[in-house]
């Protein structure tokens, strides 16, 4: 079919706005889109790269991963109300992460007697015609709109992209009846309607700055503070803001606390950077299975000691009910470039703590504060004074101690030893890996085997109850080289790895750190054609390795049967590390925090997870082989535990070999690799 339709206008406008990829899950509402893609195939038209996604949450998670590494929106196409519902928890993630995504869903035709092309002709079209389809996702969207005709589609799309890419960035939802997308358009009208909107600029909103009053007050507070503190969660989404943050931190020896980070905002090597924290509440009842490192618990005390707190791009900086929060006399200043009042959170958390709340971009505002500090202290009486020098010494010493403690934990492969037969003195002993063991070994393999020595490795951290441990022991340095979903719906990482892989071949929208810039790296290409799919995802990719680190529960939530099929088809190999503790640790910990003791006065922490209905035993899935099967044998998979290994070694040598093999499979053979690491059960 060569006829131009509203769908032709739709796809052409998206291409003109810079959309390069469409993650799709087709349905009966999309005949005109499929027909136009075929028309473009025959006429060498320019269309988005189509990525088939056999699951809607996978599609949106892949689009989020793409947006996180490029700063550009991708298109997600789903099927009417049911496809919109099947986007599932990924809708929450793209909202909370402020990821720009264009979601399009068709809708049941409005005509039933054949009055229009595309009229109802299948029984499901009556069942799928719900009263308010956009309401399914409206509260998570920055914008929803119905497309009414071919003539107005270009303006509607450009408006949607404009909103999605303006702070607070996020998803938008467009929908149309089938007859609208089938509307025929003659060639002259097609050109005219596109030209009329392409002549307009439709810019995103420019970053906002601080007022002179706010700049002066914040700079003065930091200059006179005895215990200043900077808190951030996602400032590193703009890598250029990181340099301003580090400059301010270094100038006044201000510690920087990453709270619930979703991106690298403070390089691990910065001596004034504190241990990241996810504000894990303390547990009662003798439960000692730590979710955060000792360094994180110690560094969190900086909150309660601070007399001035500068909060920059943070979703949550402390939990009011916990002890570690600023003193009521502390001066708190809040900077946020998108939503400083957290209007999309039902219970906002600024309840009088803040002296000033400023709608201001991090890069711009920190630059203003830095200039104001320098202007106020031209002679260096404060920045070169004894207070700043003393803070600098203490912070550096504390950082060195924390690194030494981390080293000791990472290298200890034998302390996690127990008898195979409890309460039996003659029982043989067994040991098991710890998360620090696995993460250190992974980090060293990456540094040793990747061409960039880890500088161009992307880590996707979705380990939930091991978030903090993984974040700290990976020791990330480069803004943008470690990400999480930014939300709480598990199942993001696997599909995000595919999307990020595809996005790695696309120039970034704006700011990029030097080590991630396509101008400064020697690109690698696929080593051979084994399993090469349509996407060519590694060719010219600014990431030499992508690693998804997940729990066993998160692996299943990620729909591996769809993801690894996609990875093979679109040639987007990545490494998956499964931290397998045998179940859902999060729900068990939540229960223990509220109900540490059972009715029989037994500590519930000692009750096996399977008994508490949070375990996957006694027979758990073989996770790595799910990936192998989904990719028809293309993916490499291995389950690794310490059964039968000498306790003296603790499995160290076997872990090192397995991780080396897995990394080489991805780097050299261009295949996915899944390493299932068996930890102590919950």
Automatic annotation (TrEMBL):
One of its GO terms (molecular function) is flavin adenine dinucleotide binding. InterPro entries: DHS-like_NAD/FAD-binding_dom, THDP-binding, Thiamin_PyroP_enz_TPP-bd_dom, TPP_enz, TPP_enzyme_TPP-bd. GO terms for cellular component: acetolactate synthase complex; mitochondrion. It comes from the Eukaryota. Gene3D superfamilies: 3.40.50.970, TPP-binding domain. Residues 466-585 form the Thiamine pyrophosphate enzyme TPP-binding domain. The keyword Signal does not apply. Pfam families: TPP_enzyme_C, TPP_enzyme_N. Keywords: Mitochondrion, Thiamine pyrophosphate. Residues 505-520 have a biased composition (Low complexity). Residues 5-116 form the Thiamine pyrophosphate enzyme N-terminal TPP-binding domain. Residues 505-536 are annotated as: Disordered. The keyword tRNA processing does not apply. Signal peptide: none annotated. CDD domains: TPP_PYR_POX_like (cd07035). One of its GO terms (biological process) is isoleucine biosynthetic process. It is found in: Mitochondrion. PANTHER family: PYRUVATE DECARBOXYLASE, THIAMINE PYROPHOSPHATE ENZYMES. Belongs to the TPP enzyme family. This is Acetolactate synthase catalytic subunit.
């Amino acid at each position: 079919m060569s006829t131009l339709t509203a769908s032709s206008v739709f796809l052409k406008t998206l291409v003109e706005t810079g959309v390069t990829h469409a993650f799709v899950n087709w349905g009966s509402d999309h005949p005109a889109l499929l027909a136009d893609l075929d028309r473009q195939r025959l006429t060498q038209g320019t269309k988005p790269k189509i990525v088939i996604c056999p699951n809607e949450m996978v599609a949106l998670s892949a689009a989020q991963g793409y947006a996180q590494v490029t700063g550009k929106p991708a298109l997600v196409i789903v099927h009417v109300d049911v496809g919109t519902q099947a986007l599932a928890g990924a809708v929450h993630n793209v909202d909370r992460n402020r990821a720009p995504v264009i979601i399009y869903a068709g809708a049941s035709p409005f005509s039933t007697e054949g009055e229009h092309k595309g009229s109802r002709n299948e029984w499901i079209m009556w069942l799928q015609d719900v009263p308010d389809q956009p309401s399914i996702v409206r509260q998570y969207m920055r914008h929803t709109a119905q497309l009414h005709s071919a003539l107005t589609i270009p303006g509607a799309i450009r408006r949607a992209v404009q909103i999605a890419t303006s702070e607070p960035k996020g998803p938008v939802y467009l929908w149309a009846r089938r007859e609208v997308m089938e509307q025929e358009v003659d060639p002259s009208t097609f050109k005219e309607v596109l030209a009329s909107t392409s002549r307009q600029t439709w810019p995103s909103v420019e970053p906002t700055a601080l007022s002179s009053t706010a700049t002066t007050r914040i700079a003065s507070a930091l200059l006179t503070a005895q215990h200043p503190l900077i808190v951030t969660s996602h400032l590193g989404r703009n890598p250029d803001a990181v340099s301003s943050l580090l400059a301010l931190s270094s100038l006044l020896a201000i510690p920087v606390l990453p709270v619930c980070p979703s991106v690298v905002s403070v390089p691990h090597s910065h001596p004034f950077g504190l241990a990241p924290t996810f504000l894990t509440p303390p547990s009662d009842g003798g439960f000692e299975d730590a979710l955060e490192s000792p360094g994180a618990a110690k560094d969190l005390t900086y909150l309660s000691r601070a007399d001035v707190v500068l909060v920059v791009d943070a979703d949550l900086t402390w939990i009011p009910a916990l002890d570690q929060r600023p003193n009521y006399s502390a001066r708190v200043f809040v900077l946020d470039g998108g939503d400083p009042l957290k209007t999309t959170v039902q219970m906002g958390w600024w309840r009088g703590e803040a002296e000033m709340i400023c709608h201001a971009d991090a890069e711009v505002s920190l630059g203003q504060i830095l200039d104001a500090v320098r202007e106020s202290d031209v002679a260096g009486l404060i920045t070169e004074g004894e207070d700043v020098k003393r803070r600098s010494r203490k912070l550096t010493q504390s950082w060195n101690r924390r690194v030494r403690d981390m080293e000791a934990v990472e290298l200890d492969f034998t302390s996690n030893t127990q008898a195979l037969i409890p309460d039996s003195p003659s029982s043989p002993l067994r040991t098991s890996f710890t998360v620090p063991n696995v993460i250190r070994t992974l980090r060293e393999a990456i540094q040793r085997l990747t061409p960039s020595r880890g500088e161009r490795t992307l880590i996707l951290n979705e380990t939930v109850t091991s978030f903090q441990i993984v974040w700290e022991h990976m020791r990330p340095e480069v803004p943008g080289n470690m990400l999480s979903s930014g939300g709480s719906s598990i199942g993001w990482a696997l599909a995000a790895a595919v999307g990020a892989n595809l996005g790695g071949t696309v120039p970034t929208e704006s700011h990029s750190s030097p080590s991630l810039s396509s101008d400064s790296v020697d690109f690698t290409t696929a080593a051979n054609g084994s399993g090469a799919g349509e996407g060519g995802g590694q060719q010219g990719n600014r990431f030499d390795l992508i690693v998804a680190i997940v729990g066993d529960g998160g692996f299943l939530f990620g729909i591996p049967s769809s993801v690894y099929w996609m990875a093979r088809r679109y040639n987007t190999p990545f490494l998956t590390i499964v931290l397998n503790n045998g179940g859902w640790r999060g729900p068990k910990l939540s229960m223990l925090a509220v109900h540490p003791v059972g009715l029989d006065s037994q500590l519930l922490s000692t009750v096996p997870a399977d008994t508490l209905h949070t375990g996957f035993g006694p027979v758990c899935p073989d996770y790595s082989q799910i990936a192998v099967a989904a990719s028809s044998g293309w993916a490499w998979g291995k389950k690794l535990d310490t059964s039968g290994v000498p306790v003296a070694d603790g499995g160290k040598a076997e872990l090192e070999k397995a991780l080396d093999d897995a990394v080489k499979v991805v780097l050299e053979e261009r295949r996915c690799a899944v390493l299932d690491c068996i930890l102590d059960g919950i």
